[in-house]
Amino acid sequence: MTTVLFTCAGMRVDIVAAFREAGATTIAADAGKYAPALYAADRYALVPLIEEHEYVPKLAELVRLHEVDLIVPLADMDQSKLAHQRDRLAPALVLLPDADVVDKMSDKYLAHLHFEERGIDSPATWLPDDVPTDAEYPLLVKARRGYGSRHIYRVHDRAQLEQVVTQTPEPTMVQAICRGEEFSVDVVCDFEGRCLNAIPRTMIESKGGESIKGMTVRDTALIELGCRVSEAIPLHGVANIQCFREPDGTHKITDVNPRFGGGFPLPLAAGGRYPELVLALANGERPEPRVGDFREGVVMTRFLSHICLTAGPDGTLEPFSEELPEPVESSPSSS
């Protein structure tokens, strides 16, 4: 049985549960004891904050103690650290592309340059000081390392652009606004960079940058786009490709996130079987591409749910009405 360690587990109960159902032994790790996904896993661990020196050593300890086969980051924040220090996490595989690709995809400006170098169409993008005088407003000012729609602002003239750039507490870039319909394509690639599947979905509604309503679509152009982009970058593992179909029929790539997307339940429900494919890769198998093998017209609409916790005999938190996970921290309440 493959043992999977999920980092930054947070609220991603859906992903942890899907891997359990696919036959994996699951360990969820997070810095916060109230992260719901901790209590959806077979075992859980509280770990240091990502920026702390002991973060990777603690993950490496978990790999050793629990014979972890695969590490799956569920958020953006620790990807660069894991990609650069994957040797310290061996023999576990880290489900990420090469470190240089991770670094570029985490910086929206560097990602744009990488797209251009690989012949991938992307909206016109500049550093704030390089915006041409004849640029067509409105424009978007974005944090280069923003996520979850944080620090994205629409500006209508040069003066407002300069004001927003000055007031934004992070390095920014400026991007032309896409005028068409937005789509996401959830892809899975093997460790050679071959795209195994690409499942497009509409963005019916999003909140805080995360899809809460969407539908899978069998759109040949988007499927081919997902395959071409993922292999050109190249990606390894899973990723979410965000794009716009412009009025002239072209597609502009705005973001590529090398992790499971917020709309993960859609490709899962559509029969993509991404957890099974990932587990096969972790076991050294070479599954054949199954591009286009999914159900179209599957609609996702999200709702609030919860896990109620109570203190166990040793003071650790436990779900009091569900099967209890096995704590792997001696004193998780201390974090």
Q: Could you say which overall geometry the principal axes of the C-alpha atoms support? A: globular
**Mean pLDDT across all residues, rounded?**
94
The description of the largest β-sheet is: 6 strands, parallel
In the predicted model, the low-confidence regions spanning at least 5 consecutive residues are: none
Briefly note the structural class of the backbone: alpha/beta
What is the helix fraction of residues, given as a range? 10-25%
* Rg from Cα: 20 Å
Query: Which sequence of SSEs, written as H and E, runs from N to C?
Result: EHEEHEHEHHEEEHEEEEEHEEHHEEEE
* CATH class group of the largest domain: Alpha Beta
- Number of helices, where a helix is a run of at least 4 consecutive DSSP H or I residues: 9
How far apart the termini lie comes to 30 Å
Structural commentary:
This protein is an alpha/beta fold. It has three domains: 3-96 and 305-334, Rossmann fold; 124-176, ATP-grasp fold, A domain (Dna Ligase, domain 1); 179-301, D-amino Acid Aminotransferase, Chain A, domain 1. Helix content is 24%, strand content 27%. It has nine helices and 19 strands. The protein has helices at 13-21, 55-66, 79-84, 99-105, 108-117, 158-167, 220-232, 265-269, 274-282, and strands spanning 3-7, 25-30, 43-46, 70-73, 93-94, 125-126, 139-143, 152-155, 172-176, 181-189, 195-202, 205-207, 210-215, 237-245, 251-257, 299-301, 309-311, 317-319, 326-327. Strand 12 and strand 13 (210-215) form a beta hairpin. The model has no long low-confidence stretch (mean pLDDT 94).
